[in-house]
């Protein structure tokens, strides 16, 4: 397992029943579907739409030093997507949770399957990402 981030991920049965919590970076080792959120924030200017993006820390456990959305995260145990995006907007972009909750728009979900990790190792990692914009 890679470096721990000490975030509990809820593992649920097919019927939605909560079975256990697991370190979020360990779920890929078991082929468990990982759920997360992404927030894209933009403003309209006279030059057109301007996006707010970030570069992750070079010592981050996943995707270090890469460009990404305004805020993103795995959902922690029993967290709803709206709660997760509001939490991450506050933590990563200093956008107050109250602002995010009042202004965010759900844009849909993206489901995908990673056969290889960002470090090149083979793997089995299904994902569902809940996408939002402000």
From TrEMBL:
It comes from the Eukaryota. This is Nudix hydrolase domain-containing protein.
